[in-house]
């Protein structure tokens, strides 16, 4: 089986992935980052379980190898998990109460504690699992029930 996580090193790589999939979840990481290494197996497992062809894809961005991709989204802390809809971090409605409010969960500015999810900053496994499961449900519903 092919790796469920796409390695993105250039903006054209990112554009190709976001053009082919409505929902894309990106893991901004670095080889020297211990929290990134700790959560990587969970992200890989979730990607393997929840990838939906042409609907939901997972990508990995090494900030040292893909500085332009990290700069596009102003990512400065690792790990950061960014949730894109149609190629933009516009926010995904994951449902009220799905994710606990906290400094690791970034919402659309001004939307409150239950606003649309934009990113998870840091190695927060509970938030990551809850968010990916909700996004997969949305993508699966829109794709007519297909999954990996």
From TrEMBL:
Residues 1-111 form the Thioredoxin domain. InterPro entries: Thioredoxin-like_sf, Thioredoxin_CS, Thioredoxin_domain. Pfam families: Thioredoxin (PF00085). Keywords: Disulfide bond. PANTHER family: THIOREDOXIN-LIKE PROTEIN 1 (PTHR46115). Belongs to the thioredoxin family. This is Thioredoxin-like protein.
């Amino acid at each position: 089986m092919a790796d469920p996580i796409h390695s993105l090193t250039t903006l054209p790589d990112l554009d190709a992935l976001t053009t082919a999939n409505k929902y894309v979840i990106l893991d901004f990481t670095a080889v020297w980052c211990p929290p990134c290494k700790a959560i990587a197996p969970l992200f890989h497992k979730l990607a393997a379980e929840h990838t939906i062809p042409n609907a939901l894809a997972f990508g990995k961005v090494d900030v040292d190898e893909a500085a332009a991709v990290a700069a596009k989204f102003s990512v400065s802390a690792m790990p950061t998990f960014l949730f894109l809809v149609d190629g933009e971090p516009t926010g995904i409605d994951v449902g009220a109460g799905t994710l606990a409010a906290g400094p690791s969960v970034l919402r659309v500015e001004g939307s409150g504690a239950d606003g649309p999810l934009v990113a998870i900053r840091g190695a927060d496994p509970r938030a990551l699992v809850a968010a990916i499961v909700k996004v997969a449900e949305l993508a699966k519903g829109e794709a007519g029930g297909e999954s990996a």
